[in-house]
Specification:
TIM Barrel; about 40% helix; about 20% strand; binds ligand G3I
């Protein structure tokens, strides 16, 4: 097929982009997103600071805008993210013990209930591990102890039993200490019946990164019985080196049956969170070499 979304759909996959609602009024942005992609994720609008600025007071307008835009065009929506150490509203940051636990569960319940039936997957927990495989010493970890990730997944499952529930992280672009720690957690969850359905590999990369174990890493997670998704792909660099790295990631997903889709972390270099032009469309919404590489990989799978 001739677009990213349609090409991914031929193998039952999605190809999505992270979206900022305030850009949807720009025609180049909206046209590119609507034409090329068949899935979206809110870059910021569904995070804790955006959705629950005050305790128990939920504001869904930003996320709802993105959901309605996507639904009107038949696009899927991923949910990002229910619990994260970053972008917590101020009122959460000082909570201790059971006050934090109750706030976490209440937040998961409120947001996942609201978006039930509208998002096909949730990043339930984001970035809870360090490079060496230890737990990140966030307020959640320090106040709630090792069990907090399991508690978060159980709360999400109770609120939306049909959404695919994912653990999501970066720096997991091969077999390394961090990805192995996450692997061990997922294996433990599966053996004890903790509801986890998928693992998200953010894949914030640079051209030329060593991806020699990228595919085998995806495969070992898939072999645990979870789906794997490329959730925040971007590749700093340019030209053929950038294109090659994008191609390697896309081919890896296509080669793993349980790799259900790819999301790039933005539509255009113009609005990327990075300043090294890491996306598939340039500032003027022109297709880059990286675009062609991804499209070809989707079509040869
Ligand atoms: O909306 C406010 C605006 O009102 C204010 O004037 C402006 C001034 O700084 O800030 C705006 O908010 C910014 C927001 O992006 C929207 O642009 C925040 O400061 C800024 O911190 C926020 O950055 C986001 C970042 O997560 C926060 O940690 C990026 O857009 C977003 O791309 C990035 O996404 C994360 C994923 O969620 C998780 N994985 C890593 C990834 C990249 O860091």
């Amino acid at each position: 097929a001739s677009t990213l979304g349609a090409s991914a759909a031929e193998s039952g996959r999605y190809f999505g982009a992270a979206v900022a609602g305030n850009r949807l009024s720009e025609s180049g942005y909206a046209n590119t997103l609507g034409t090329e992609f068949n899935s979206v994720v809110a870059e910021n609008a569904m995070k804790w600071d955006a959705t629950e600025p005050n305790p128990g007071q939920f504001t869904f307008s930003g996320g709802d805008q993105i959901v309605s835009w996507a639904q009107a065009r038949g696009m899927k929506v991923r949910g990002h993210t229910l619990v994260w150490h970053a972008q917590q509203p101020g009122w959460v940051q000082g909570l201790t013990g059971n006050n934090l636990r109750n706030a976490m569960v209440n937040h998961i319940t409120g947001v996942a209930n609201h978006y039930e039936g509208k998002v096909f997957a949730w990043d339930v927990v984001n970035e809870a591990f360090e490079w060496d495989g230890s737990r990140r010493q966030s307020n959640l970890q320090q106040q709630l102890g090792n069990g907090w990730i399991e508690e978060a997944f159980r709360a999400a499952d109770a609120a939306d039993p049909n959404a695919r529930l994912c653990y999501n992280d970066y720096g997991t672009d091969g077999i390394n200490s961090k990805s192995t720690a996450i692997y061990n957690m997922v294996r433990d969850f599966k053996s004890r019946g903790v509801p986890i359905d998928c693992v998200g590999f953010q894949s914030h990369l640079s051209a030329g990164d060593n991806l020699s174990s990228y595919q085998s890493n995806l495969q070992r997670f898939a072999d645990l019985g979870v789906a794997v998704e490329i959730t925040e792909l971007d590749v700093g660099g340019s030209g053929s080196a950038q294109a090659a790295t994008f191609g390697t990631v896309t081919q890896a997903c296509m080669a793993v049956a349980r790799c259900t889709g790819i999301t790039v972390w933005g539509v255009t270099d113009k609005y990327s969170w990075r300043n090294d032009d890491p996306l598939l469309f340039d500032d003027n919404y022109q297709k880059k070499q990286a675009y062609t590489s991804v499209l070809n990989a989707l079509n040869s799978g």
